[in-house]
Amino acid sequence: MYHVIFVCKYRKVILEPISEELKQIMIDISKESNFEILEMETDKGHIHFLIKSEPKVSVLSIVRKLKQEYTNRL
Questions:
Q1: End-to-end CA distance of the chain, in Å?
Q2: pLDDT tens per residue, the chain (74 residues)?
Q3: Which of 11, 33, 43, 61 is the most exposed place for a label (fewest CB within 10 A)?
C-alpha cells in the first residue's frame, strides 16, 4: 500500500471546484489499470490517495499513470 499526495504548484487553491470530477476520473483510471484506490480525499491545494497494488508494480508507474491520464481527461 502507498500513501501518495499530489500537490498543486505553489499550493494554489484550484481543486475545490473540480474535486468531485477529479475523484471520478481517478477512480476510472484505477479501474482501467493494475492498482486500486482504497481511499481518496481532496483539499484546497492537494489530494491524498491510499493505493493498493501488486508488489511488482512500482509507485513511480502508478503516479505517472495517474498524472498523465487525469491531465488528458480533465
A1: 26
A2: 999 998 877 766 766 677 788 889 999 999 999 999 999 988 877 889 999 999 999 999 999 999 999 888 87
A3: 11
How many domains are contained in the chain? 1
Do residues 7 and 56 touch, judged by C-beta distance below 8 A?
Answer: no
Asked if residue 45 lies in contact with residue 11, where contact means CB atoms within 8 angstroms, the answer is: yes
- The position carrying cell 493505493 is 51
Residue 52's domain is classified under what CATH number?
A: 3.30.70.1290
Alpha helices, DSSP H, located in 1-74: 19-32, 59-73
CA dihedral sign, ordered 68, 26, 57, 46: positive
- All three cell numbers of 17, joined, read 471546484
The predicted model scores a pTM of 0.79
